[in-house]
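#structure-requests
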Amino acid sequence: MPVVKGCVGDRNVNVLRDTGCGGAVIRKDLVKEEQMTGTIQRCVLADGSVVEAAVAEVDVDTPYYSGAIVAWCFDNPSYDLILGNIDGVRRADDPDTSWI
């Protein structure tokens, strides 16, 4: 799975484009309090376990997607930002090569 550099706000992050994921995951300490929606959602992980995660709306800028996303907040995800199959995301084999 491809890993690239991207930005969450003014912070540089490692971004995984995960074609097996149905949403987006962000490391919780990258999210500001005012970005939290107040919603909790249940997420089914790859191993079949179910966890509850707070939801935030954040702006991201990556070679796979730029703009606002709704993401599940995890304390220690494998990557800072995981972009699954959300509306508008680029294919894993087609990052924006002009992204800086």
